[in-house]
Amino acid sequence: RTYSLHIEYHRNVSAERLVELTADQWEHLDAPASVIDHFVPMLRHMWPDVRKGDSLTIHVTPDKSEFFHNESAIGSIADMEFGKLFTDIWLSPETSAPDIRADLLSDC
User: Fold this and answer.
1) Closest CA to 89 of 69, 65, 70
2) Does the structure show a pLDDT above 90 at 1?
């Protein structure tokens, strides 16, 4: 299955803060610490600081997930399970943001 999730930022966020927030959400979703520890360094290396008006997009295919910053490719993770792990932050029934999940799923 191939899909994309596009996130537009309404405030400035440092790359380090984005990674911290992602790890926090994975903990909320009970991802194993070993999985979080495996992916966090990859995201730290890949993600830029974002400014108000910027976007990050993840394009998930069966064999990899590719990230784009303002439509420019910034890197990929060749792991079949990463895309679901990342998009579950918003799409899992256990998300900490059920209102965002409902909005996203209403567009499907």
Assistant:
1) 65
2) no
